[in-house]
Amino acid sequence: MVNGDEAAFGEFYERFSGRLYGLLLFLTSGQEQIAREILQITMIKVARKFRVFENESALWAWLSRIARNALVDYVRDQSRLPKPVSVELLGLTVYAPGAAEAELLEWLECGLSELDQGERVLVESVYFQRRRQRDLAGECGTTQKAIESKLARIREKLRQFVLQRIKNERRTI
Amino acid sequence: MNDERSDEKRRLLNEVFRTDSIDSFSRQLKERAWAEFRRARVMRRIALISSAAVVVTALVAGSLFFRATERNKTRNLATMPVPTEPKQSRAVQAVAPANDATLTDEQLLAFFPADSCFIAEVEGRKILVFRDPELRQKYFH
Predict the structure, then answer these.
(1) CA A114 distance to own-chain centroid
(2) Which terminus of chain A has fewer CB atoms gathered within 10 Å of its CB, N or C?
(3) How confident is the model at residue A173 (pLDDT cuts 50, 70, 90)?
(4) Domain range annotation of chain A
């Protein structure tokens, strides 16, 4: 990416945009509109300033810091407008990104346990055992497209579950 | 093992929140980020080329300046007064009164037979020119 490799940027985007969006949803207490706006700002900053990191956790620490700073700037800018965003939003930005992600992962685990048996097995096979969807389709006597659709439905279910937990958590703060 | 599961969970979390699956927002975001990435790459290249150009220009200017200085030095050596001048002044000093630090042109010419020589100015320096080379030999052997 530092050398301007577009394929590398594509891979980076695929691997981190979702994680960043999840973190921003957590930090904004599930306010999707704001989270998307900050995600956009973050991605543009990252595209401009990318540099070399020793490992993935150092990269993630940098990314989450950029996201959090972008959110703080956003809240500050908004507070000058006639209809400012909630000041409480700023309070959440002090949440360490590592701790925020740990909570998200915990809620994701809860979400997984809420899935029915078949769905859980599919997620386990694809994401934890890294089995190929084509092989699973062959074993189940179905098409790869059907497996992909099922996985998309499961991901949406998990997304809604975690989002709901984020919003509920907000009410308890 | 636990770490490995955490990594896989992070991968799943990324997939769950990857906005591709939500709406067209992601496409727009990705396009904007790509555009920014390309712009940053172009800027980096321009900066690199500019700094290389500055270095090359500095080297060329330095070498031209050095060559010009060398040429000037050579030219100065080539136009230096003939070595007769110091001898001439020494000879003059020998006959000149001891308390005279300098001589005027007329005083200098007065040391030699009338109209046998004259003072010429070459590149800001005065030199004594004899009309007859033999006479010059007589005084500056």
Answers:
(1) 20
(2) C
(3) very low
(4) 1-95, 96-173
pLDDT per position as a tens digit, A72-92:
888 888 777 666 555 555 556
Helices (H), chain B: 2-17, 25-78, 84-95, 105-110, 133-139
**Partners of residue B26 in chain A, C-beta under 8 Å:** 17
What are the angstrom distances between the C-alpha of B82 and each of A102, A111, B93, B135? Answer: 93, 103, 18, 17
As to burial, measured by CB atoms within 10 angstroms (0-12 exposed, 13-18 middle, 19+ buried), residue B99 is exposed
Do residues B124 and B66 both lie within one domain? no
Kindly list the distances between the CA atom of residue B136 and the CA atoms of B79, B94, B122, in Å, as whole numbers in the listed order: 21, 17, 19
Do B28 and B74 share a domain, yes or no?
A: yes
> What integer is the mean pLDDT of A9-28?
87
**pTM, two decimal places:** 0.59
Contact A128 B8 (CB under 8 A): yes
Instruction: Provide the number of structural domains found in chain B.
Output: 2
Q: Does B27 touch chain A (CB under 8 A)?
A: no
Q: Does domain A1-95 sit in CATH 1.10.1740?
A: yes
Mean pLDDT of A123-144: 89
Residues of B in contact with A43 (CB under 8 A): 29, 32-33, 36
The ipTM value here is: 0.78
Same fold for the domain at A1-95 and the one at A96-173? no
Q: Domain for residue B1, yes or no?
A: no
- Summarize the confidence of residues A82-111 as an average pLDDT: 73
Residues of chain A with pLDDT > 90, as a percent, come to 27
Fold of the domain built from segment(s) A96-173: Arc Repressor Mutant, subunit A (1.10.10)
Residue B123 phi, psi (nearest 5): 50, 50
Residue A150 pLDDT: 92
Residues in chain B with CB shorter than 8 Å from the CB of A162 are 16-17
Q: Where is pLDDT greater, at A6 or B19?
A: A6
Considering the domain architecture, whether residues B89 and B54 belong to the same structural domain is answered as no
